[in-house]
Amino acid sequence: MADTIFSKIINKEIKADIVFESDKVLAFRDINPQAPVHIIIIPKEEISRINNFNSKKHSELLGEMIDAANKIAKDLKIDDGFRLVINNGEKAGQSVFHLHIHLLGGRQMHWPPG
Ligand code: DGP
């Protein structure tokens, strides 16, 4: 597994405020929240970025990440409106090269994003 900060969170080598965990998926509060609710949802399997997504291998896993997003949104009472974001590559703002979905909510969102 590539040694990103998220693999350290998966391995419990560094602490995170975990809001959901299953065999394959982990979710925790973002250290630098951009909304009242800002959760990072990651696969425990290391996929560096969405460029490397392979539907034959990863569809079920991505489905579990979306299921987790819906469950967390409901648990945290933002299921009436939230945003899911995947940044792919530095140009899109990706800073941690372990695939993750941002779940943002708890405020009015605007479009287009910056
Ligand atoms: P991105 O820029 O799309 O790669 O998002 C990475 C996010 O990860 C960013 O919003 C900040 C968050 N993050 C980075 N390091 C840590 C950490 O050590 N703990 C937590 N909870 N979040 C982190």
Which key terms come to mind for this protein?
114 residues, HIT family, subunit A, globular, binds 2'-deoxyguanosine-5'-monophosphate, five-stranded antiparallel β-sheet, alpha+beta, 2 helices
Description:
- The chain has 114 residues and is α+β, with helices and mostly antiparallel strands.
- It has a single domain (5-105), classed as HIT-like (HIT family, subunit A, 2-Layer Sandwich).
- The chain is built from 2 helices and 5 strands, in the order H-E-E-E-H-E-E.
- Strands 1-2-3-5-4 form a 5-stranded antiparallel beta sheet, covered by helices on one side.
- The chain binds 2'-deoxyguanosine-5'-monophosphate.
- The site of 2'-deoxyguanosine-5'-monophosphate has 13 residues, from strand 2.
- 2'-deoxyguanosine-5'-monophosphate is lined by residues 5, 16, 28-32, 40, 87, 93-96.
Q: Taking Cα atoms only, what radius of gyration do you get, to the nearest Å? A: 14 Å
CATH class: Alpha Beta
The pLDDT mean sits at: 97
Integer tally of domains: 1
The largest beta-sheet arranges its strands as: 1-2-3-5-4
Ligand kinds: 2'-deoxyguanosine-5'-monophosphate
Strand content: 15-25%
Measured as a percent range, the helix fraction is 10-25%
Within CATH, the superfamily carries the name: HIT-like
Largest sheet: 5 strands, antiparallel
User: What is the CATH-assigned architecture?
Assistant: 2-Layer Sandwich
